[in-house]
Amino acid sequence: MEKGLKAARRGFGKRSIATRWMMNTLSVVAILLIIANLCIYYFTKQYYYGSAESYIISEANASQMVLARLYEDLSVNFSSEVRHIIENFDKKDQMEMMSINRAGDVTLSSSGFSPGRTYFMPDYETAVASEDGLGVYQGRDGGENILAVTIIMTTTSSSVNALRFVTSLTLVDDQISGIMLAALLISAFILLVVVMTGAYFVKSICVPLVQISSTAKKLAKGDFSERIPITSNDEIGQLSQAFNEMANGLENSEQIKNDFISSVSHELRTPLTAIKGWSETLNLGYDPETFTKGMKVITGETKRLERMVEELLDFSRIQSGHFTLQMSTIDVIAELEDAILIYIDKAKKESVVLSYNEPEFLCAVYGDKNRLRQVFINIIDNALKYTEAGGSIDILAEKNDDSVTITITDSGAGIAPEDLPKVKQKFYKANSTKHGSGIGLAVADEIISLHGGLLEVESELGYGTAVTITLPLVQKKERSEDEQKNG
Fold first, then answer.
1. Distances (CA, A) of 357 to 340, 354, 395, 455, 470
2. How far apart are CA 35 and CA 40, in angstroms?
3. Which of 34, 50, 229, 298 has the largest CB neighbor count within 10 A?
4. Chain-centre distance of CA 293, in angstroms?
């Protein structure tokens, strides 16, 4: 586990999944946060500047209306009232109020400064040129951002042609800066959370992947003892579980292979020893009885070797995908009977009752007669091999609507429940004391599968075993077409 963590940490410095994921995620999140902050800045500025502009315009309109009423009132001194209003402007702490004459000069200012100085007034020029008599300027003036609004008077007074209101946007900019600082801090926090959660998430993926990679290398070197700890139920946990199951399968296959090599070595040594021994005995001199007995042993052991070699060759063809069938329409019952005839005498010699009721029906299947006979021979041979003297083997053939079922039942030793699921596996032998390579039933199952059939094994330890073979029948239409082809 610790090695996996160290490897995962090293992986962050490379162009690994962790690095790519973090870079891609951070890039996307950073871009989204930049866009979000730009939007926040734009809309915040629009809101605050717009609010300030609306406020000053409303103040300008109100002041313009007050002065218009005073101008129409002949009982007051208009110039004096204008001076009084501007000098006593109650919002001078928020904005500066100015009066502008027709020459475009500032005549009065609520700031108390001398109006003789030159002012930068693009808003006044805009107001003069506009139809509604309103001009707005927002920009830099004297090193700070300002907002200036000029409104042209509707009166015809020569001393007051327009009112101008100017305010500094420094406070507004400070508020916007505060909001943007908060937005940036939140963005930094989001990035930090993304980095932390991303690192945890990536580690939860990369550590198991590194462990899987490390374990796979050990498996490739033949070490099947390593397993991956499962810490979650997600896809990574499922992958780890599948990998462990694969490792178990490889370990089991390795054990079966080793057992097979040992078993085959023993199986080959026994007949070879018998053949060699009897050959040496026969070379010592001719004795009719000894010669007959020796040749019988040599012939039997040779057939046994031949059968074992054929099973190994069939297994090799299956593994390489070169296992072929010579398919034609055949009577499967005839092939079954040929296989039974081979073992009738042998069963009698071993005091085993071999019973078979010959059916009266014809069962036409589309298959390879030699391979099907091989299957029947293998299963009957196994049944005889595991049935002690005094036991019995019953063979039954039943015809269904679209299939034929052949059941071979023996009263032998049976198979243990833990071994039963494995009996069709290659190289597996439930009973190592009996002769055989352990691949005969696996080859038989493969042959039946290639015929579109099913081979099932049922057994109970101490009570015997039943092997059921189901093969699809050739329908009449298909049979006639096949006969025409073979015509």
1. 11, 10, 8, 21, 18
2. 9
3. 298
4. 66
Q: CB burial class (10 A; 0-12, 13-18, 19+) of residue 197?
A: exposed
pTM over 0.85, yes/no: no
pLDDT, one tens digit for every residue, the chain (487 residues): 444 445 444 444 455 677 777 888 889 999 999 999 999 999 999 999 999 999 999 999 999 888 888 888 877 788 888 888 888 898 888 899 999 888 888 888 888 766 666 778 999 999 999 988 999 999 988 778 999 999 998 876 667 889 999 999 999 999 999 999 999 999 999 999 988 888 887 777 777 778 888 888 888 887 878 788 887 777 778 888 888 888 887 887 777 677 667 766 766 777 787 788 878 887 877 678 888 888 888 887 787 777 777 767 766 766 666 677 889 999 999 999 999 998 898 899 899 999 998 787 788 999 999 889 989 988 998 899 888 999 999 999 998 888 999 999 999 888 888 888 777 766 555 555 455 556 778 888 888 999 999 999 998 888 899 999 999 998 754 555 555 555 5
Q: What is the DSSP string of 322-348?
A: ------EEEEHHHHHHHHHHHHHHHHH
CB-based contact 117:105 (threshold 8 Å): no
Tokens of 80: 């004096």
Give the distance from CA 374 to its chain's centroid: 44
Furthest-apart CA atoms within the chain: distance in Å: 166
Number of Cβ within a 10 Å radius of residue 272: 12
Going by their DSSP bridges, the two strands 392-399 and 353-356 should be labelled as: parallel
Number of other residues whose CB lies within 10 A of the CB of residue 16: 17
User: Per 3-state DSSP, what percentage of the chain is helix, strand, and coil (rounded to 5)?
Assistant: 55, 15, 25
Please name the helix (run of DSSP H) or strand (run of DSSP E) that holds residue 474, with its range, or none: none
Do β-strands 134-141 and 144-152 pair in parallel, antiparallel, or remain unpaired?
antiparallel
